[in-house]
Amino acid sequence: MGIAIILLLMIGAVAAFVCKNDKxxxxxxxxxxxLNAILAVIMTVTVMNSGPQSVTxxxxxxxxxxxxxxxxxxxxxxxxIVGFLIVWASMSMISHDVEEKKIPMFYGLVLALLGTLxxxxxxxxxxxxxVSIELSSFAAAGIVIVKNQTENVHAGLKYLSLSILGSSxxxxxxxxxxxxxxxxxxxxxxxxxxxxxxxxxxSAYILWAYGLISAGVAFKAALFPCHIWLPDAxxxxxxxxxxxxxSLVLKAYIVFYMKMVFGGVGFNLIANSPMRMLLNVVMVVGxxxxxxxxxxxxxxxxxxRMIAYSSVAQMGYxxxxxxxxxxxxxxxxxxxxxxxAVTKSGxxxxxxxxxxxxxxxxxxxxxxxxxxxxxxxxLFTIGGLSMIGIPLFVGFNSxxxxxxAIVGSNNxxxxxxxxxxxxxxxxxxxxxxxxAFFGQEAKECTEPLGSKExxxxxxxxxxxxxxxxxxxxxxxxxxxxxxxxxxxxxxAIGR
Length: 495
Fold this sequence. Notes:
- With 495 residues, the protein is mainly alpha-helical.
- The chain has one domain (2-490).
- It is built from 23 helices and two strands.
């Protein structure tokens, strides 16, 4: 089923590229992502009923294995469902940012990107992962550059340059791991490290390899201070592109990193080896990112750049959870991938709606917007409250999970930056909401209620994303149980 998802998306990408009609390209994009979401759900149900599955192509060192377990299904559903909703929203938005003749290229790039992101998560072979990472980088840069403005070309090239740098670091780490373990498969690396006591005999090799991979993933996933490409890319790209980049693209590389660290080394060896020192660095850098990203977001006046810097802070949360190095920390990081995906995709699409309808990006000029665009600003409010961590929204569950992981690991000092970060989130989301609904401009607004609102049918995919924010806020139990099973399987070798 995993192979079917990748092939479906790649075939859809080719079909979108070759078609000349923008309406046909839109339908190909929408239909392919809908089928992708359906296949992902079917695959998840199959794994729940029959257990994890794997398929291997070829033999020997260069064999390619696709693993489909709980975490892979979780990510496939995330790529499928959120990707479908973003593409659906783009049906009525993309013409605002992309020339009609380039719309087929946009949908081709989006489908190719989703296909390669699934491959990054599915492949166990490091060779397959690396090729997928490289292809995803070019597709991701493409959905930024496709807007065809000077600032977009510069932002896309900056992203591509730093992304290739990150890929190079990851590749060097993979080569060192191959020399040390003799394997290019995550399972083979795990058996070599955990079964042959390589952490004692070749600890320097292992530490260098994982250090390089950590640095590479930091660039790929925009972990501060390797985030410098993100604000320009997310801020200038078409809003559907920004939503995909923030909510989905960054997460594939992080899940690969989780599989390499916790599946390859295991909790037991991490706790009693130099790897603990490396994860301490990851944890501290994550904490710095949480604060720095929020401070930089507060300083912005452009709505999309504010949301982009917010993503830098949210990546910090995830890496802090990874750095904690416990099952609770890994669970908190995985759940936050879900939380951030459904929340931030909605926020970027809302920002795009505001810019399209008002031709304004300046936060200081959005007073009274709650009168002019009440539904849109209500959706922004839901996303903002989730990012702050207000109960009944999925963001609260994320912060609760992180607090539980912090207490469980006895790193009580982490509660301080966690609280400060939540406060900083409030300082840049709440003022926008207050000015929109209750500021002086709102009181003095003489235009009719909803006079600049987009049709509800165009807002429907964003409304559904907001519903997911609330749904996972009040009923996250099934997802949590599913992720726990995935963590048990991922880390079984290292117990």
